[in-house]
Amino acid sequence: MPLLKLEKKEQQTRKSYDKPARKDNAIISFLKDIALTIADKKFIGLEKKFDFTADSAITSLTSAALYAGKKIVIFTTKSGKVYALDENFKIEWVYSLKEKLTETELFFTEKAEVKDIYTTPTIADINKDKKNEIIFGTDTGNIYALNSMGKLLWIYKTKGKVRSSVLVADINNDNKSEIIFGSNDKNLYALNSKGKLIWKFMARSGIEAKPSFLKHKNKAQIIFGSNDGTIYSLDSNGKLFWQFKAKGKITAAASIGKIYGDSKDYIVVGSFDGYIYTLNSIGKLKWKHKTEGNIFSKASLADVNNDNKLEIIFGSCDNNIHALSCYGEEIWSYETDFWVAATPLVVDIDNDGRYEVIAGSYDKHLYILDAEGEFLLRYLPGVSSVTQQSGYYDETIRSQPGSYHGKKLCDYKSEGMIIGVACIENKEKNIIIGTENGKLNSFILSG
Question: What is the pTM of this model?
Fold first, then answer.
């Protein structure tokens, strides 16, 4: 029988994903794969809802609930401003940096760096007032804390650029939030909610990756990567627990989850060496997967195919969005025309009970992909080819009749390189993108 080809123009041919051996017989396995193909996700469209033009290039983007029941968009600009917009892109408030540098600092600081903000603001209730605060760092080495109305609470000064976003967590079980972040002065800092130093840890290089928090059986770990490729684990007092060395700079925050569906946590982090690493909770390598480009940002972990295990979805400077199984095998990848530097979002954007992947690329496109990928048949075997003959094992019984591929549901071409993607849900789900030319766009689904 001839091959059954289901490829479409926008689909990308990728590596096969050979699933681990299953106990199902070959016919049941084959029928499951056919069901995946038949129950295909329909293509969707995007309708632009709102636009906003900032005063300069957008450098980071996030969304959160600052007030009870109301989610808003928070973003930063190269001119040193922090904007808070409601879902209709109306300005709630704007905070402008007022950096005061000494003559010595001004001598060693480029004029453009005085107002640069490259950290994504962290939104959290740090002082237990039932309102969220906004914490972010700047290239002049300062950490700022603002209240929910955009008013300054405090500033903490380090001796290097702060490009590490902030972790807020109760790391020592005192029912109070601590603020953890790195600096290019090589220190990881722990502050209390009032901006006072609790401890600091000196690494061998600068720290631009956001720290992550792992807590298991009352044992806390603060995990972060550094510019020389070392991944550190510290205890709640800032003492070294373990370290692991990658071969490239790490700016991505570590993702932590029970990827195998059991009680054990694993640490997933990408590096500029092109690898994404998975470590166990004591820093031992479980597996690593090679891409062909730097990995800038945190991977997303989600069970996209209902197998009770977490898949790993991330972008790379090989221009691809990658989806891996918990075993480090590639399920699918989708190729764009330039780097995918920001973390892809994994959400059910159309409320059909199945996940989509939302990702922005430096090729100026926003992509929405089917998170499961699409199963394309290499052949359509007859009954004789899937039925075991006496004394003989046909290769078809032991292999998949097709492979998974990245599938685009829709895309949108923006006016500039996409720096960040966010999703907010009030009455409806809105996809937000921010670009390097200062444009902010909001979309809802159509069709």
Answer: 0.84
